[in-house]
Design brief:
The protein is globular. It has 137 residues and is an all-alpha fold.
Length: 137
């Protein structure tokens, strides 16, 4: 029984390693540009439509000018859209990941006081609780 479980786990890891897709963190341009100001949010946290809207107005990115040159913008947007989440649970009219139904469901147990703790400050500070590696790869 133990051998079967170990073989199953090994097989799952092997299939993940050979599925031909590099891990998300392999996209250095996305990590470099988006991660220079905040955590490079995993693309599956918003829909392709949300990413399109967000990336089309980077000169007004939540109060900051995060504009990129056209080539880098296209490279990052293509990556984000290719790995985007789908369905209502990942859609946010405000383009804030913290406004998606998924985020609200996953974080519903966190009190208002915890969000304003000096080490957390806001819902967008994922690394305060999750560390630098939000991707899990």
């Amino acid at each position: 029984k133990r051998v079967a479980v170990l073989l199953l786990l090994f097989g799952m890891n092997l299939s993940h390693a050979v599925n031909g897709k590099p891990p998300l963190s392999a996209n250095t341009k996305w990590k470099e540009e988006c991660g220079s100001c905040h955590v490079a949010y995993p693309p599956q946290m918003l829909t392709a439509e949300n990413w399109q809207s967000l990336m089309s107005d980077l000169n007004k990115h939540f109060g900051s000018n995060a504009a990129l040159d056209a080539h880098d913008n296209k490279v990052i947007l293509d990556f984000l859209k290719r790995h985007a989440g789908s369905g209502e649970r990942y859609s946010a009219a405000s383009l804030r990941i913290s406004d998606t139904p998924w985020f609200k469901r996953e974080h519903h147990v966190i009190s208002a006081q915890e969000w304003i703790h000096p080490e957390v400050k806001s819902r967008s500070n994922c690394s305060a609780c999750h560390g630098k590696h939000v991707l899990g790869d």
